[in-house]
């Protein structure tokens, strides 16, 4: 049932192009508009939404962090993202015009369930983004967008994450479409790019051998740091989470702009630092700032592992290891940038002799608070 792979995680990483395509299936019509009939919250209600609040845990929370960038950019609706376990205990400000989005692969995560119950008690509408048909979270929500990734067996979430991202982009674009923002043309262009993204994920998967080799060479390290900026920041957090749970290594993700506010003190000779570089085309200012960051940490001895778009030559002089990803619209980059980090963590775990599908102390769904 592992389809020839040694681990479910490897199988699920490989299934991502199909999973991503399945999430999009039937949701983009012939003229390139979104048809999200499943979202049983009327267009009139969606036009009234004055705040979006996303609640989730772990990897799903990282998807939510990325969704915030997309929702605020394409819809201009303020969006908050909060760890479900923190949410209801701080007496959050919610009302009938708040749209709460609960993201959960299993649909059974107790923290997320309690957060959505709290939101509904305040009169807010709840939209679930979920991978498990008929599970508790979608049953208790006003509407659900299923991710259609197929069953995810490995404890570490991979294909569920990519499809959560796709679902989040769909919601963001749909909200933009329903409300009509000045980004109409960009929204149509991104919908077109999304429909090709499965092929781009496939291309990344075909180039992963050097990443595996690199991972094996780092098996005796104690620490790996991850840096990113804009949507690359949650990708860095996700890369670090994967490494913690699978390789049992000390791994931390930082917003690259925070380096000089503390973390740069951690840099020492030969410390591996993975840097997720934003597109040089889109927000070129942050691209240039990240290139300076890479320069700074390398000057202090870090071993730089740089994930950058094809054609981005500015990073070449400062990259000890360069991992290329296809060019995508700025906001969609996490769909291709996360894949090498999944492969990296999986290979490091194997090299360290760890049980990839069943990491110690973890359960696939956390049904206690
Ligand atoms: C990490 C991982 C966990 C889950 C988290 C939420 O690889 O799998 O961090 O993402 O426990 O689970 P769901 O999405 O089922 O609510």
Walkthrough of the structure:
The chain is an alpha/beta fold. The chain has helices spanning about 10-15, 15-25, 45-50, 60-75, 85, 110-120, 135-140, 160-180, 185-195, 195-205, 210-215, 230-245, 285-300, 335-350, and strands spanning about 50-55, 80-85, 100-105, 125-130, 145, 225-230, 250-255, 270-275, 305-310, 320-325. The strands form two sheets. Strands 2-1-3-4-5 form a five-stranded parallel sheet, with helices on both faces. Helix 4 (about 60-75) packs parallel to helix 8. The model has no long low-confidence stretch (mean pLDDT about 95). The protein binds fructose -6-phosphate. Fructose -6-phosphate binds next to helix 4 and helix 12. Homodimer. Catalyzes the first step in hexosamine metabolism, converting fructose-6P into glucosamine-6P using glutamine as a nitrogen source. Its EC number is 2.6.1.16.
